[in-house]
Design a protein that fits this description.
It contains ten helices and 26 strands. It is of the alpha+beta class. The protein has four domains: 94 residues, RNA polymerase II/Efflux pump adaptor protein, barrel-sandwich hybrid domain (OB fold (Dihydrolipoamide Acetyltransferase, E2P), Beta Barrel), CATH 2.40.50; 115 residues, RNA polymerase II/Efflux pump adaptor protein, barrel-sandwich hybrid domain (OB fold (Dihydrolipoamide Acetyltransferase, E2P), Beta Barrel); 42 residues, E3-binding domain (Dihydrolipoamide Transferase), CATH 4.10.320; 216 residues, Chloramphenicol acetyltransferase-like domain (Chloramphenicol Acetyltransferase, 2-Layer Sandwich).
Length: 534
Amino acid sequence: MAEVINMPRLSDTMEEGTVAQWFKKVGDTIQEGDILAEIETDKATMEFEAFYEGELLHIGIQEGETAPVDTLLAIIGEKGEDISGLLSGGTPAPEAAAPAAEVVEAPTNSEAQTPIPEGVEVISMPRLSDTMEEGTVATWLKKVGDAVEEGDILAEIETDKATMEFESFYSGQLLYVGIQEGESAPVDSVLAVIGPEGTDVAAVVSAAKAQDSTATAVADKSAQEPAPTKAVAPAPTSEKTVVATPVANPVSNNKVIASPLAKKMAADKGIDLTRVQGTGDHGRIVKRDIESFQPGAAMSMQQPTGVEQITELANSQMRKTIAKRLSASKFSAPHYYLGVEFDMDAAIAFRSQYNSLPETKISFNDIVIKAVGMALKVHPEVNSQWYDDRIVHNHHVHVGVAVAVEDGLVVPVLKFANELALPQIGVQVKDFASRARNKKLTPQEMDGSTFTVSNLGMFGIQEFTSIINQPNSAILSVGSIVQKPVVKDGNIVVGNTMKLTLACDHRTVDGATGAQFLQTLRGYIENPITMLVS
């Protein structure tokens, strides 16, 4: 049956949208998740994906055209399906004649009858990424009573992937704050209330609470008794809210308040933000403060020795996610470890000769990743994943590369790593590392790994073990190259070696299987020229 897709509401203030670009044309096959078009709202240009599969039968709004929210955007259905009835008026005919949805009675107390005054806006915790379920308020840049202009930055919000500045789309006075600094709350929880000075906040809160209970009742009723048609009851005219208390001064509790750009610049320059005097709003550290920072001038600000001090850091969304996933992996997957030590003399000579080529530079990490990709192609049992009802052997090789960032660890993925040339691997890894530190990686770039490489050799770590990145079956820990005496042909000579440790999930990878993989890997790393002729 054909599905009608209307112009979506992509922001809380969006009333109409413009189709900037279509990525599909009439007659194309559509898969769920395909990007259909780019749509311009009043705030941004966003990609709009399909939630249905079939053939694109009709486009209702052409590139460059603007239309109100809920206008017919496209129709997806089966090839050759008759959609003439759906094109009448731009909405599906059966839905137009559908009976009204059952109405759930709102609370009868007087609070439910009081509308939220015009000009008062309730702001909810935004969904800042497709996987975001809750957010943490890292920093409030406004406090209750402050005047707020449209475009002002209200707060910095941490998601599971990034810390983002959240700006106001309204002007007025900040009347209430619903989530304090360091607190986490689900998407759509009340974040703040903005309105004109002198607003009866208690009445606004009461009215919004009544609307909240009505909306919850409708949702519960719909979940228990599915409606026979697609008709939907009108949404309330105002967002829900809860009672909140004034926010604390954002510079209290020894918290460092800094813009994301200032944090990045400080990290790149090795500057301790606790020693920087902020000149932005409410003492916020901004770009100019980092640019003008003089280490010597800040020495007098250090605390005297002999004083006990601690710093308490609220768990960020990234740290919570890391803790949850790695704990699940460590305590559910039976890990075992295989350690090896490779002769790196040939790899050192190979890299030196390779880098002598014009405009070419590869690292030992690039060599390892390339060798891993080619060895995994030979051993799909290691390039596998465990599920409760099956084991999947992957015949494509997507290598995740662990990258350390300020708040923890992310794992961008090199797709088809075995097919990439060494310089291509180097370029991609550098790009991933740079954007990871700036929290600019997309969810798609961190999804789909079949194996992971974690390299701490650049930090001087000679040997370590890692926790498997589930549902993958293995992860390789790479140490530093060490010069030491080795025995070759019965003689003690100076050699270069590198230790690697393979962590395996015993449910999918037996000891002999892991050992065979490491033998293949040894062949490529100790004789890297073979990677160019295989």
